[in-house]
Amino acid sequence: MKKSFSAALLAALIIVLTTTATYAQKTTTKSSDTKRTRVNQHQTRYLNVESDSIGDPVKRIKTDRDGHIYKIKLYNDKITELSIDGSEVASQDFSKYQSMVDEILAEVKRDQEQAERDRQQADVDRRQADKDRLQADADRRQADKDRASADMDRQQAERDREQAGKDRQQADKDKQQAEKDRANAEMDRQQAERDRAQAGKDRQQAERDRAQAEIDRKQAEEDRKLVAALVADLVTDNIIANEDSLHSMELSDSGMTINKKPQPESVFQKYKAKYLKKPGMKFGFYNEGHNRTIQVNNK
Which pTM was predicted? Predict the structure, then answer.
């Protein structure tokens, strides 16, 4: 029984760690939009695949590979429009780039399949937790049976004492045996109580772990959206040219720096009023060596 609840606890911890790892990769999927930021053998820093609806044969891809910006429009996974660094490519040259498009689409498909496997594993973990709860109920019922059996043992001891009047020596032996039986029955009852108490603790801990995992997931999503909105405001306010030109950003009660340069007081006060909702809150965005890190301290 304890092993079963330990397995449930371990499953809950795995969900927490999986959620944290997914957020750290900065991979986001919104309905029909697929965005990836990573470095691979082609030195790709980002990949954006969009379509207007699920099942739409038209897809739009924007990516950079080996220092070039590619914008591609597809119909049924075939190139219909292509530009490299802003220059249009003639349609007769589309076939040269079809293998790159096929590689991108295969990568997106692998990511979607992995997400489905993760969801199925989560379902398996939930079903195991349900089985563990059913086992705890079965253990409680068994403890009730043990108590009933102990009562039967005590009744048998009474009959043994009556028999002692007929045969004193035999009665003494039976009495001693009855005492041993009662002691064993009490030990069994106490162990059953301890097992039930531990089962309850394990079940409560598993519930707390699942609840905390959900809180962490929601907070991570809120933090990501908040930093994305802040970066978008920097572009809108012409503080940076675009998101790729932002290498570092820090915002706290004491000041604001962009790419390690302190910002004017007016800019600092504007962003402080909009994004620092409580004292001690801090934002950090770092883009170094194709590795992006987001830090939000809500304390």
Answer: 0.33
